[in-house]
Amino acid sequence: MARAQANGIELEYDVTGPADGEPLILIMGLGAQMTRWPSAFVDKLAAKGLRVIRFDNRDIGLSSKLEGVPDFPSLFKALGEGKKPDVPYLLDDMAKDAIGLLDALGIERAHVVGASLGGMVAQLVAADHPERTLSLTSIMSTSGNRELPPAKPEAMAVLNDRGPDPLVDFEGYLDHSVKGAVVVGSPGYPPNLEETRLRIRNDFNRSYSPAGFQRQYAAAAASPDRRPKLATIKAPTVVIHGSDDPLVPLTGGQDTAASIPGAELVVVEGMGHDFPPALFDTIVDGIMKAVSRAKAEAA
C-alpha cells in the first residue's frame, strides 16, 4: 500500500492488476476502510484486465484525519429550515479526493465504482467530472431524494448505536458489531459469524476512527439532493442494489437509476447491505456491464 497527496490531504491506496489495464477506482462507504473491498473481489476485477485502485476515504483508515465535531441536532434543524448546515465537509469534497488521487497517479480517466456512501461520492465524480469518468457503477446507494422510504429502524439503529467503546470493552464491541453486520446483511446469504468477527477485529487493528465516522455521516446528511446532477451524467451507468437491503432500501437504487439517463438497474435477489462472497461474481458482472458499455461507445 502507498500514500498520495490528493486535494490537500493524504490518501492511503493500493493498486491491483495489469499496469496497462483500464483504471477502475473503488470508493467505499460510510466509516469503512478500503479493506472492505475484499481482496478476493478486487482480484476478480483485476482478472478482467482492469487496473483496480482502492483507497481509504478521508477520515478513515490510514488516510488523513480532519477536525470538527458535527452537531447533529443543529445540522437537522438547519436542513429543516432550508439553511446550509455547518459541517466539516460535504460529499462533493470527497469526490474531489477521488479525482485528486487519479491526478496523483497520472490517470486521465477511470471507471468509477462506489458502494453505499461511496456510491453517492461516485455519482458526484461522474456528474462533476465527466471528462474523468469512463463509466459509473453505483452499488447499494441512493439519489439523495429525501422523500424516499427510510432505512428500517433496526438498520438505522446499527448506524446510530455504535456499541461499547472498544478501548474499554473490546469483546463487547466485537459482539455488538457482529450483530449489526447480521442486521444489515443479506438474508439470502447470511454472514459467517467467525469470519465477520475476524474482519471487524482486523479493521479495528488497522485503524479506529469514530470521529471520522461522524464527520462522514454529517457530510452525507448535509449534502443536497443529487437528482439534478444525476440527470447530467453521460457516462454509461449501472446501478446494483439488493432486493432486501434494510439500510438503503431498493427504492434508493431504483430512484438513482431513474434519475440517470440510460442507466441500467441490476436487482440482486437476497442481497442486503453487504458484499457476500457468494455474490462477488454477480457484482463483478454488473460492474463489467458498465465497463463493456463504455468500451463499446468508445469503439
Structure commentary:
With 299 residues, the protein is an alpha/beta fold. The protein has one domain: 3-Layer(aba) Sandwich (Rossmann fold). 42% of the residues lie in helices and 16% in strands. It has 11 helices and 8 strands. The protein has an 8-stranded mixed β-sheet with strand order 1-2-4-3-5-6-7-8, with helices on both faces. Helix 1 packs parallel to helix 11 (280-298), helix 3 (91-104) packs across helix 4 and helix 6 (170-184) packs across helix 7. The chain is globular. The mean pLDDT is 96.
Summarize the structure.
The chain has 299 residues and is α/β, with parallel strands linked by helices. The chain has helices at residues 39-46, 72-80, 91-104, 117-128, 153-160, 170-184, 193-206, 210-222, 227-230, 250-259, 280-298; strands at 2-6, 9-16, 22-27, 50-55, 110-115, 133-139, 237-242, 264-268. It has a single domain (2-148, 208-298), classed as Alpha/Beta hydrolase fold, catalytic domain (Rossmann fold), CATH 3.40.50.1820.
Q: Spans of 5+ residues with little confidence (pLDDT < 50)?
A: none
Helix content: 40-55%
Topology pattern, helix = H, strand = E:
EEEHEHHEHEHHHHHEHEH
For this structure, what is the CATH homologous superfamily? Alpha/Beta hydrolase fold, catalytic domain
Distance between the termini: 34 Å
Q: Give the overall silhouette.
A: globular
Structural class: alpha/beta
Average pLDDT: 96
